Amino acid sequence: MNRGIFITIEGVEGVGKSTNIEFIKKYLDNLNIDYLVTREPGGTLLAENIRDLLLSIDDDSPVELCELLLIFSARAQHIQKVIEPALERGIWVICDRFTDATYAYQGGGRGMNTGLISELETMVQGSLRPDLTIILDLDPETGLRRARNRGELDRFEREHVEFFIKVREAYLQIATDFPKRCAVINAGKELGEVSRDIALLLKTRLFEE
Ligand code: TMP
């Protein structure tokens, strides 16, 4: 049996990840492909509890290193319990954020040492990397406006726009550094156009090799 394909979806807040994941699900349904959709931080009971710790706002918010280690702890659990077993069984995995978010938010946004992130990546993931990473790109001001309209803000959404400008720059740098794995989609276009761009991307990257 062929190993499943591992697809990750990335982008700043309010970029429309959920809507576009719904589109990808329909696309794969039409092709009768067996997949699961999951997210980071999260994806297992324990990892979702860690997510709550990361996103909640209280008097003892994590220092940067604690935040980074919590993210990779959740990731270790998620990979071993959900992602790897699915891929081994030939099931495709669509993951709402993965390690590129760590490079973008902790590396870019917080300015943490990317060498340290890379060491943790190797420790936690071994050779596991996404087969395709879709980076939904949108100017952070528009994204934040959308996110803020959704209601109560989490700990990341409360960051200033300057933070998200750095996050976006880091994502675009990742796309430049890993052009075979990553694709940037302009999420500022009208929804139908974004869906068409994603459909074309999936077709050319995954089904025409
Ligand atoms: P989301 O589910 O709305 O994407 O929220 C998850 C938040 O966690 C988002 O603000 C980005 C942040 N995050 C990191 O800072 N680093 C990471 O590695 C991941 C996966 C998410």
UniProtKB/TrEMBL annotation:
Does this entry carry the keyword Kinase?
yes
| Entry EC number(s) | 2.7.4.9
Q: Which GO terms describe its biological process?
A: dTDP biosynthetic process; dTTP biosynthetic process; dUDP biosynthetic process
Mind listing the GO molecular function terms for this protein?
ATP binding; dTMP kinase activity
Q: Name one GO cellular component term.
A: cytosol
Domain Thymidylate kinase-like stretches: 9-198
Which positions are annotated as binding ATP?
G11, V12, E13, G14, V15, G16, K17, S18
Q: Which domain of life is it from?
A: Bacteria
> Is tRNA-binding among this UniProt entry's keywords?
no
Q: Which reaction does it catalyse?
A: dTMP + ATP = dTDP + ADP
Keyword annotations for this protein, in alphabetical order, are: ATP-binding, Kinase, Nucleotide biosynthesis, Nucleotide-binding, Transferase
Task performed by this protein: Phosphorylation of dTMP to form dTDP in both de novo and salvage pathways of dTTP synthesis.
Family (UniProt): Belongs to the thymidylate kinase family.
Protein name from the UniProt record: Thymidylate kinase
- Species of the source: OM182 bacterium MED-G28
Q: Upper lineage ranks?
A: Bacteria, Pseudomonadati, Pseudomonadota, Gammaproteobacteria, OMG group
